[in-house]
Amino acid sequence: MPVREAQESSITRLRLIHHFEAHPAPVTGISPSLRDKGFMTGDAQGNLFVHYATSAQTLLKLQGNQQGIRTLTFSPKADGAVALTEQGSVVTYAIQNPHPETTLATLFSLVWYEGYEGPEHVWQSSSGADDFEAKFGLLPLMFGTLKGTLYAMLVAVPLAILGAIYTSMFMHPNLRAKIKPTIEIMAALPTVILGFLAGLWLAPVLERIFPALIAMTVVVPMSILAAAILWQCLPPAIIRRLRPGMESFILIPVIIGTAWICLGLNQPIESFLFGSDYKNWFATHWGLRYDQRNALVVGFAMGFAIVPIIFSISEEALSNVPRHLIAGSLALGATRWQTLVKLVLVSASPGIFSALMIGFGRAIGETMIVLMATGNTPIMDWSLFNGFRTLSANIAVEIPEAPHGGTLYRTLFLAAVLLFAFTFLINTVAEMIRQRLRTKYSQY
Amino acid sequence: MRAKFKKFLASGNVFIWGCAAGVSVSLLMVFGLLLLIIINGLGYFWTSDIAEVTLKDGQHVMGQLAGREIIPRSITPSRPEGKGRVRVKIGNRDLYGLDFKWVNDDQIVSLSYPTDAVLLERREWGNMFARIKAVYDGETLLADGNEAGWIALAPLLTTTEALHRQITKIERVEIGSINADIEQTRLKIRAFELDHLSPSKSSIDNLRAQIAAMESRYQEKTTELEALRAQFDQYSVLMVDANGREKQIPVGQIIRALRPNEMTLLHKGWIYVTNVWSVLSSEPREANTEGGIFPAIFGTVMMVIIMTIAVVPFGVLAALYLREYAKQGAMVRLVRIAVNNLAGVPSIVFGVFGLGFFIYAVGGTLDTLFFPERLPTPTFGTGGILWASLTLALLTVPVVIVSTEEGLAAVPREFREGSLALGATKLETMLKVVIPSALPGILTGLILAMARAAGEVAPLMLTGVVKLAPSLPVDGSWPFFHFDRKFMHLGFHIYDVGFQSPNVEAAKPMVYITTLVLISVVVLLNFTAIVLRNHLRKKYAGSVL
Predict the structure, then answer these.
(1) Alpha-carbon distance A229 to A232, whole Å?
(2) Which residues 395-454 of B have a C-beta within 8 angstroms of A?
(3) What are the beta bridge partners of residue B128?
(4) Which one, A125, B299, B301, B507, has the greatest CB density within 10 A?
């Protein structure tokens, strides 16, 4: 029934986009709300319907008394209406309808807002203009939450799991007693500090050294490989003097050195890989725009925050694999690596899985890092180079200004409930897996 | 050789090295981060020399050198080393509007460190780097020229410092308390009016008279203040910058005047110490980008203390019940899962809960019941230190429970059995034997909870932290502890100064310092907890019979 302008190039044309329930009799009166996108229709039989345009919902149907409605009007605050019937009587209505704009569909699915070219997911809760329609699509925020978490996991998982394997299996116990608390101190660092460093230090640095970073992802693993091979070529007398666990200390200068070289060669790498300017290159070749505070920065910072969580839980799971099983495997002639892959990892895998889930849960709810290190733009785009807005950051930004009891306030509470439900689910499953694992090991 | 290599690959040792790299990178990240913060944080307190750069176009730039870099994209095949430039902190924000200036290397004719350059630390507009031209008392000239001016300035600074202290005292303490009294009396009148038990008109008139008396006292104080202010602004110093631009500054605006270029290393070391102290003990200036962080430290500490008072009974009693009294079964297992779950709930969700439950539900009710005369201005129905602390107490309860349980579990069964066998009741055993032995565990939990609470920011943003609190939650006016007041917090200070301030570049040192303070507190607390825990483990490791 209602039609709206849609933009096609510069010409605007009317198009049919919403259908509303038909009245049983011809519609004789229609009145829009001055406050929101609601409107009211009355028909020849006196029926009154209240609709909401954006959500295409008919909110209220009032049965008429067979007196046709001549004209009707919404009150300015949309909390009442006056109708004039054919018989000349005036009927007044008090309407209590505090949140007409929100339905499940407007929160979670595509909505065609006024002035848009098509249905979209939009979160835009406030604006400078008065005739503004608040858009509460939660999907961009959920998308942002997942995007941030995913990039953080990409950084954190390999580091944490590899580190946990090494610390629990190949490190001398004395050394382990020192390394473990050191990495766990990471977990105690306030995330506001990580967020600040990510936003004010890492973001500009990354922007400058991005080409070197690309090179590092290739060169550093290669240098580690080279170091390992070189070490094997050393005389056995030296190799045997290596205490278990010293490999990681030997690698520290190797990694620093390689990273240093990459940084020094930043500009040559940039001109070799991307012509002269990598931002230009990405813009022309892949159509990507580089924002300074982007998903990459968040990936590093949030990865940093969840490394210790995943590390310490999976280290615990790996260490709890009964020692006599490992001793048996080694005694049967398996190498350390074979023992690890075929025995330890297999039996500790539920524990590692639960560590991953707990880390995932932590990343989903993390607020300060994403608040400070992303541009907080609620867009849906997987690109590494632009920002996003997460549910948690959105709550932190908007709830202090949301009027108590209003639609925005309630929508933000819904966002908090979503966060809670999600982390609750993840944590419960992870906790159950851990408990089951513990009873399994206690049999040995 | 080749066979050896194949064998090496088959042995999987490469992958072990890969795993080792995981540890290396993690360690590098931890220490790199700590190093970054320490260097940046501690560097700020050092007063570096004032350089004067003469440029090719005859202009001069005066300021502290703040790093150099290769100009981006200046590297060309003909000049592989690129062009460099230095960053100079030029200060004089009131003259130039900018804090920093880039100077290209090829523009520099000469660079010197003149001993007569003066650094003025000011209450407004940041530092000034300039030379003294003259010192005035009102309109009369006291001293002319740089050297004479420098000698004349020193005693004036001492006088104005004393004056400043006096003015602050009158403003804060005396006028502040008069204002508070007026407000209290006004509220009393309002309460009388709200109370429908027909108040005696005389009592209201009496109160009105009191207000009038207080207002006249207020007038007296303001005149006194005016007089002091005039005295404060009486002396002024005319400064001239490197290019000859002049600027007259009231001596009252100057906190400290230094000539860093003629200071000895020892003197600089002393200035360093005083700088550290002034940041820790003074109040912020210039929209938090300068001055100190004392209110933030105070707010953080006070919030953590209130949180501790709230969390200890809850956490310890819950753990005692779970471990010592409850029948271990499905129910207790469910509670444990729930507790662990609570630890994993995002902190912002706790913040939302605090806002909805504590502030709007509990606080709103308290307001209508006990402070109806203040409405619609909320008292407890808005964010405040009490609600923030309680929210964080909820957040940290799992930490205390888990740690206390661990401590209780470590107490050997023989202790309990011995005590019970000697005829002690269960309660006596609990109070005299079990809890004292488990104390390190309880303390560990408490310290970890404090560390967690000190660093948490997101929930506070919803429950009562502000960028600038006009007064501390504890002061001299009745009832001394103001739990309804909003407060400042180190973590929020970092967020606010680093991301919400208009001049982020100039604010950076402040952010690093705040970070350094916060991180030291948190890491220190955590180390204490680790040491305590290890102590606990050792203590009972050998005692199993």
Answers:
(1) 5
(2) 451-452, 454
(3) B120
(4) B299
